[in-house]
Design brief:
The complex is a heterodimer of chains A (about 230) and B (about 400). Chain A has a 7-stranded mixed sheet, sandwiched between helices. A two-stranded antiparallel ribbon of chain A has the order 8-9. In chain A, helix 1 (about 45-55) packs across helix 6 (about 175-190) and helix 3 (about 75-90) runs parallel beside helix 6 (about 175-190). Chain A is α/β, with parallel strands linked by helices and about 230 residues long. Chain A has helices at about 45-55, 65-70, 75-90, 120-125, 140-150, 175-190, 210-215, and strands spanning about 35, 40, 60-65, 95, 130-135, 155-160, 170, 220, 225-229. The radius of gyration of chain A is 17 Å and the shape is globular. Chain B has about 400 residues and is an alpha/beta fold. Helices cover about 40% and strands about 20% of the residues of chain B. Chain B has helices at about 5, 10-20, 30-35, 55-65, 75-90, 100-105, 105-110, 140-145, 160-175, 240-265, 285-300, 320-325, 340-350, 375-385; strands at about 10, 20-25, 45, 70-75, 95-100, 120-125, 150-155, 180-185, 195-200, 205, 270-275, 280-285, 305-310, 315, 330-335, 360. In chain B, strand 15 (about 330-335), helix 13 (about 340-350) and strand 16 (about 360) form a beta-alpha-beta unit. The chains are: A alpha/beta (about 230), B alpha/beta (about 400). The interface of A and B includes residues 17, 28, 66, 120 and 151 of A.
Chain lengths: ~230, ~400
């Protein structure tokens, strides 16, 4: 039941089981609006908040989900390209995919994937303090966001293709390639206004050690998660 | 050409609010099947039980006429409700229905639908739960439905049964909801009795299910992420699996909360109030509302000011709306058609600490009889005297 004091969705760790924000009176934004710490904001204000957090917090990371990882319908490739343009504007950013939602046995490689069954392993291992979910189905994004808020201090941003997410600190609904580009533009705007990114000296996308090894063609991954040459 | 192909697809807003309607004097079963005719339904899976059977027989007729793509009779309720789970996972619009003992037989499967995030519509024609054997109306089964995670509406009459059923398909399939929606009516009083129902033209139908834009991927081996079986969280006895399962359960109830916006938009709110300023209030759902309307009229004829709150949505429950509506209430009675008083418990839990009103523990009928309006009137007068 709802408390009289407005609930705020802030970075955790909030404890074992924080309540779902939707059951605390937080409502999803309409088209043209965003959600910041549980409060409805204009889309532009939301984009600027997202941009500032991405430029100033530790180890910014983008978690692309299946809806942008595969060109499964028209327009997806364009949206995926817009996500890469966004990454190019965030110095020091990493990209760690959530390719699907099945549990990964016996353990995940947190430098290779994030998984909704245990998302915090990836957050903790890579010391991620701000992240963007894009292209993840809403149910799996929501349970992931709740677990991250429970156990980590990560600031979560969602660029949602549908109605948005109450449990992320900043959420933009109905987000297509144009909205992703608008976030990229908001980042450029803050830089033009003089904001020096935390990783200004580390331009471009940073690969995790696992990604570096795989990219160089020296290794592939066995089913047990171990790397083999 | 199949008949459904000749229907014109219109927006939900046009279907619900703008399309011209004509009046028909029909039974609840007919009203439900007329809603299905306009619902752009893909599949209905039936298993017979009184008083639900007639509706699904009529839906079978719709299949024969070409309004549905598929229809079959399952081997029992567990089979019907499991089959509808499979159908919903493949992205089609689905319907099933049951009553009392049949619902209880399939309850395990019903309670698994929300966790699997399965949009579908489940019609409940309430009936006594055996034993002793009875086919009479009584809505005790809704006490068991309250905590399954399904969105749950309780229709008062034939018109509600038509409107709620049609709206349920759209609410169920909203991405942020992606839950089963159950529409209950009191058996026989609504299903087998006739009432006036205003309906838009049968040449119209709702848009089909948009299955690629829902909260979970449907099963489609041509599209990632490919799923052999869905929703397998890690099955380990450790902290992280407990937390994952807990977050999953929270998400079901969060999704129920998100349906409020659409219930308000498409059904005009979670409750309806008559005489909001009255100090004596009747709170009811289902057929008890109709009986309460008549009791209210009789009370007014006798010079008493009485209000009526009709609860349309049992899940989500209209918590804030009810608190607001009962701010000035001094006496509340809760007429019900079951022996446990599940609505009374909901009302007490919701209003605890938010009202000064005395909440009477009744009146109730059960076992199949209807509630005499005189009984409600008697409780109203007793409440005003400070009795009961």
């Amino acid at each position: 039941m709802m408390n009289s004091k407005p609930y705020r969705v802030v970075p955790g760790p909030e404890g074992l089981l924080p309540p779902a924000a939707a059951t605390c009176g937080i409502v999803l934004p309409e088209k043209g609006e965003g959600l910041v710490l549980g409060s409805l904001q204009s889309e532009q204000e939301t984009l600027l908040v997202m941009a500032r957090e991405l430029l100033t917090r530790k180890n910014p990371t983008i978690f692309p989900g299946p809806l942008v990882l595969w060109a499964w319908k028209e327009g997806v490739a364009e949206k995926a390209a817009s996500v890469l343009e966004l990454a190019d504007e965030i110095p020091g950013v990493r990209i760690i995919p959530m390719p699907d939602y099945r549990p990964i046995y016996p353990k995940i490689d947190p430098e290779a994937v994030i998984n909704p069954c245990h998302p915090n392993l990836t957050i903790w291992h890579n010391k991620i303090e701000v992240c963007v979910f894009v292209g993840v189905h809403c149910h799996f994004a929501n349970i992931t966001l709740k677990m991250i808020r429970a156990g980590t201090n990560c600031y979560t941003i969602t660029l949602c293709h549908e109605a948005g997410h109450e449990d992320s600190m900043a959420s933009l609904p109905f987000c297509g390639a144009d909205q992703v580009r608008a976030l990229t533009e908001a980042i450029r705007q803050l830089k033009r206004e003089g904001l020096r990114p935390r990783y200004a000296d580390t331009p471009g996308i940073q690969l995790t050690p696992t990604q570096q090894t795989v990219l160089s063609g020296l290794a592939w991954q066995h089913g047990d998660g171990a790397l083999a040459e | 050409m199949e008949k459904h192909a000749k229907q014109r697809v219109v927006s939900p807003e046009y279907m619900f609010f703008e399309a011209p309607r004509t009046r028909h004097f029909i039974t609840g079963s007919e009203a439900a099947s007329e809603a299905v005719r306009r619902a752009n339904l893909d599949i209905a899976i039936a298993y017979p039980i009184t008083p639900q059977s007639e509706t699904m027989q009529r839906v079978g007729d719709l299949f024969g006429e070409g309004f549905l793509k598929d229809y079959y009779r399952a081997e029992d309720e567990i089979g019907a409700f499991s089959a509808i789970s499979g159908a919903s996972r493949t992205g089609v619009r689905c319907l099933t229905a049951s009553s009392g003992p049949g619902l209880m037989r399939g309850l395990e499967v019903i309670a698994s639908w929300p966790g699997h995030r399965l949009p579908l519509v489940f019609l409940i024609m309430c009936r006594v739960i055996n034993a002793p054997l009875s086919i009479q109306p009584d809505n005790l089964e809704l006490a068991y439905m309250l905590n399954t995670g399904s969105v749950l509406f309780h229709a008062e009459n034939q018109q509600d049964f038509f409107d709620y059923t049609l709206a349920s398909f759209i609410i169920s399939e909203k991405c942020e909801v992606t839950l089963p929606v159950s529409v209950a009516v009191d058996g026989f009083f609504v299903t087998h009795a006739r009432g006036w129902v205003e309906m838009p033209s049968a040449e119209l139908k709702l848009p089909g299910r948009d299955c690629y834009n829902e909260a979970v991927p449907m099963i489609d081996n041509e599209n990632p992420p490919i799923r052999i079986a869905r929703d397998a969280p890690i099955q380990k006895s450790n902290f992280i699996s407990y937390q994952m399962h807990a977050a999953w359960q929270q998400e079901i109830h969060a999704a129920q909360e998100r349906s409020r916006r659409w219930i308000t938009r498409y059904m005009g709110g979670l409750l309806e109030i008559t005489n909001p300023d009255a100090e004596t209030i009747i709170i009811a759902s289902g057929s008890a509302v109709s009986q309460s309307r008549e009791a209210l009229r009789q009370a007014q004829d006798m010079g008493h000011q009485v209000g009526l709150i009709k609860i349309k949505s049992l899940r989500p429950f209209p918590v804030q709306e009810l608190r607001q509506a009962c701010q000035h209430a001094k006496r509340i009675i809760v007429p019900e058609f079951n022996c446990v008083g599940w609505l009374n418990r909901e009302v007490r839990a919701t209003l605890y600490g938010h009202t000064e009103a005395e909440i009477a523990d009744g009146p109730r009928v059960y076992g199949g009889i209807t509630m005499p309006t005189e009984m409600i009137l008697e409780w109203l007068l007793d409440a005003e005297k400070g009795g009961q």
